Amino acid sequence: MKSFGLIILLLMTACAAKHELPQTQVTNPYQARAEGLARAGVHALDREQWNRAKMLFEKSLQAATLADDQRLMSLAWYNLGRAQVVRGDAKAARTAFQQAIRQADAIQERVSMKRAGLALALLDEQDSSQAKGLPSADLLRVPDAFPIDVHLAAARLAEIRHQFELAQHAYGRVLEMAGQDRSGLTYAARAHLGLVGLARSQAAPDGVVKDSAWMHLNQAISLLRRAGGPRLMLQALNMAAEMETDPIRRQQWQQRAAAVQQALQKAHSE
Amino acid sequence: MTTENYVAGMRRKVGWFVMLGLGAIVALLLVATLRTEVFARKFTLYVAPPSASAFFVGQEVKFQGFTIGRVDDIELQPRGEVRIALRLLDRYRGMLHQGSAVRLFKPGLLGQENVEVTSGDVRAAMLGDGALLPFREQATLEQLLMDMKPAVANADTLLGELVSVARWLNDPQGDIRLATANVRAATQGVDQGAIQQTIQRVSDAATQLERLSHQLADNKAGEHLANSLKQTAQVLKNIEPLTNELRRQAPEALAQSRALVQRLDDLSRSLNGIAMDMQQLTPELPGLAQESRNAMLEMRRLAGAVRNSWLGGGAPEPVSNGSELVAPPIMDTTQ
């Protein structure tokens, strides 16, 4: 009886030894911090707090470096570049985007490489002192699975470079991907505004704006009313004022745009 | 002779005494001056902040937590610009490079602010004497409080909405109660026991929701509320016979709950920002930041539970496109 008990005990011990301990979920606090700071920086950028956004992205980069996470480092460099663009420091923005590309290249992270590459090309397009890059089909072609912001950037670049078919396709992809949350609605509004630009650039020779341009513009304004985005709203109202042929209605659009602009300036000075 | 020897001895002793005293004073002075760096070589840097209100002459200037100098002079330039001279120890000059900046930081929640110099780009050249450094503004506690105001107002509104939804759910003359009564009448004899039981569970959950929503302001109420709402959501999701009928009869419920979910999302975003701000600004209050973050996580879970429930229309949680971590692309220079 004693030996039987001993055998049972041995078997139980063996079973217990074979049983693997459950994997404990560990979160790297530096990664979490880098992501949290990036999120807060994007939020600050949305609220047009440029300096604050820059500070948060710098700290995000620091945390990503401490986590030794190259994907997050690349993302942080891109975000930092984006904050530098709105602060008007094109040189620093260019350096940050180049750093983002280098970092993404090191780990073959295609999404980050494409994102930073497009941002750099867009920056070059805006900066008249920089030599314009040759239209690169590779840069403008974005796999469908890539995130929505990459498609939007590609659409904008294709529009600037007069590659209208590619731009149309990319804006369409943005509209397909845009969710129903605030960020999704804002992306959809940006895509509609881009499509307005496309429709206008392909307008009839007599200068009459296509109906589709007005349709996209109205959709953009409606989305922006839901999601909120005064800077984009200002852009939409200015577009409407430019497109309107009736002088009274044009004046109304201009007045609305001026009111939004004044309110924005006042909000910034406070 | 003896007297002369005595006097000479006394003189010698007094002489030694005076010399030792003077030596001690000189040694003390030497130690004091060495410790206070009075005679150490120094160099000057300038900074031009928008306001001098947080600066004063003699204020410590820190680098990596070490005192490396003091504010030497504050003056108002003829064009109304503030110019502050920082007198720093020369031996630290090798650590300060081009790209350095000056900022103010508060070591604690209370007390005066310190001036801090950052090292700059270590690959760049050292700073020269008389260099003008940029002043880097940091988000202040006041700004944080300003940021918190709308979130607190949001939380108040949210609490009010939760209570009103709960009251509406619990109203004997409300749509849900009437709808359940209608269904009960329509399905008499089908499975009365199960329906009665289900209605009772809905009623219990709604009562629990109302009770717990009053405790939202309490620290641990969020978790309880989330659990309660999850239970409610689960109960409501499982009421298959009631779902279509209620969906038809209670469009207001859908509208209210969707608006609620939207507000929860907004609130969770602003709480996220606040939690990050708090961690940045008040490192001595990690508990507070943690609490905000926990509140945010609970709110997110809550939003997810409601959204997935029948109340939210049964739609699955939208897949995140990761855009919350990425700044939107440049459309023009004003964005």
Describe the protein's architecture and organization:
Chain A is globular and about 60 Å long. Chain A contains 13 helices and no strands. The longest helix of chain A has 23 residues, at 247-269. Chain A is mostly helical. Chain A has a domain at 30-122: Tetratricopeptide repeat domain (Serine Threonine Protein Phosphatase 5, Tetratricopeptide repeat, Alpha Horseshoe), CATH 1.25.40.10. In chain A, helix 8 (148-160) runs antiparallel to helix 9 (164-177) and helix 11 (211-227) runs antiparallel to helix 12. Chain B is of the alpha/beta class. Chain B folds into two domains: 42-136, no CATH class; 141-318. Chain B is 54% helix and 12% strand. Chain B is built from eight helices and eight strands, in the order H-E-E-E-E-E-E-E-E-H-H-H-H-H-H-H. An eight-stranded mixed beta sheet of chain B has the order 7-1-4-3-2-6-5-8, with no helix packed on it. In chain B, a hairpin with a 2-residue loop joins strand 2 (60-63) and strand 3. Chain B is elongated and about 105 Å long. The N and C termini of chain B lie far apart (103 Å). In chain B, 24% of the residues are buried. Mean pLDDT of chain B is 65; it is low at 186-192, 235-247, 281-292 and 305-321. Chains A and B meet through helix 2, helix 3, helix 4, helix 6 and helix 8 of A and helix 7 of B.
Number of DSSP E strands of chain A: 0
The shape of chain A, in one word, is globular
First-residue to last-residue Cα separation of chain B: 103 Å
Q: What is the 3D form of chain B?
A: elongated
Low-confidence stretches of chain A: 1-22
Rg of chain A, rounded, reads: 25 Å
- If helices are DSSP runs of H or I spanning 4 or more residues, what is the number of helices of chain A? 13
Q: So, CATH architecture of the domain at 30-122 in chain A?
A: Alpha Horseshoe
- Give the tally of structural domains of chain B: 2
- Tell me the helix content of chain A: over 70%
Report how far the terminal alpha carbons of chain A are from each other. Answer: 87 Å
Given helix and strand content, the structural type of chain B is alpha/beta
SSE run of chain A = HHHHHHHHHHHHH
Ranges of chain B where pLDDT stays below 50 over 5 or more residues in a row are 186-192, 235-247, 281-292, 305-321
Largest interface: A-B, 54 and 30 residues
- What structural class should be given to the helix and strand makeup of chain A? mainly alpha
Question: What's the overall average pLDDT of chain B, rounded?
Answer: 65
| Proportion of residues in helical segments of chain B | 40-55%
Quote the CATH topology of the domain at 30-122 in chain A: Serine Threonine Protein Phosphatase 5, Tetratricopeptide repeat
Query: What is the element string of chain B, with H for helices and E for strands?
Result: HEEEEEEEEHHHHHHH
